[in-house]
Design goal:
Blueprint: H1 3-16, E1 29-34, E2 39-43, H2 56-66, E3 72-78, H3 90-97, E4 104-108, E5 114-118, H4 119-122, H5 129-133
Parallel strand pairs: 3-4
Antiparallel strand pairs: 1-2, 1-3, 4-5
Length: 135
């Protein structure tokens, strides 16, 4: 594991511990790696009006965009499930795809072990900004 991947995994675990999830009690953390090497984190933030809940991955993307980042190379995501790797929900996969399909995704267990995959594998045949450019 490279130092940057180690840091990315560690930061997603730390972000999970900051999650605001009083309803589901399902904390999720995410850490994005920008093209220029910065790491931006996010956690899920629930709302009593459930539909207004924001996932960790989308919180991280929104935070990164607000900080001026538009290009990303990787994301690490984690939750409290210990016996298997859990990926982003469909909505988060689509939001990540907005910024390109060539991301490395580290599905991370609470103990820090991870499985490496890629966004284009998690969301095959995705709708993307390129489709809008062809009209």
């Amino acid at each position: 594991m490279t130092d940057k991947v180690t840091e990315l995994v560690s930061k997603c675990l730390q972000a999970r511990d900051l999650a605001y999830c009083p309803y589901s009690r399902f904390p999720v953390g995410a850490a994005l790696l920008t093209a220029d090497g910065a790491i931006v984190t996010g956690c899920n933030v629930e709302n009593a009006s459930y539909g207004l809940t924001v996932c960790a991955e989308r919180t991280a993307i929104q935070r990164a965009v607000a900080e001026g980042h538009r290009q990303f190379t990787a994301i690490a995501v984690t939750c409290d499930i210990k016996d298997r790797f859990v990926g982003p929900c469909g909505a988060c996969r689509q939001v990540l795809m907005e910024f390109g399909s060539n991301w490395t995704v580290y599905l991370t267990k609470p103990d820090g072990t991870y499985k490496e995959t890629h966004l284009h594998e998690l969301l095959p045949l995705a709708f993307s900004p390129e489709h809008l450019a062809k009209n």
